[in-house]
Design a protein that fits this description.
- There is one protein chain.
- The protein has 78 residues and is an alpha+beta fold.
- It is 44% helix and 23% strand.
- A four-stranded mixed beta sheet has the order 2-1-3-4, sandwiched between helices.
- The longest helix is centred in the C-terminal third of the chain and has 15 residues.
Length: 78
C-alpha cells in the first residue's frame, strides 16, 4: 500500500496521484491539512509535500516517486 501525503494546490502531489493511477497502484491520498498529526509523525523533519510512504520506504517528492515506480515496473517486465 502506498500513502501519498499532499496538500491542496500542490501540482507535484497531484502528479504523484496521477502516476499511481496510471500504473494502477494501490494508494491512499491524504491531505495534510486534514491529517496534520499523522503527517508530522511520519515526517517530523520534512516540511514539504509530496511525501510518500510505500511499504517501509519513505520517498520525498515527485521525481523520487517517479523513479521508484519506474524501478518497480522495470522489475515486473524483466
Amino acid at each position: 500500500m502506498i500513502t501519498i501525503y499532499g496538500a491542496p494546490g500542490c501540482v507535484y502531489c497531484t502528479k504523484c496521484a496521477q502516476l499511481a493511477d496510471t500504473f494502477e497502484l494501490d494508494y491512499k491520498y491524504k491531505n495534510i491539512l486534514e491529517h496534520p498529526e499523522e503527517f508530522l509523525e511520519q515526517f517530523p523533519e520534512i516540511p514539504g509535500v509530496p511525501q510518500i510512504v510505500w511499504g517501509d520506504r519513505k520517498i520525498s517528492g515527485y521525481p523520487d516517486f517517479a523513479q521508484a515506480v519506474n524501478d518497480i515496473m522495470e522489475k515486473q517486465y524483466d
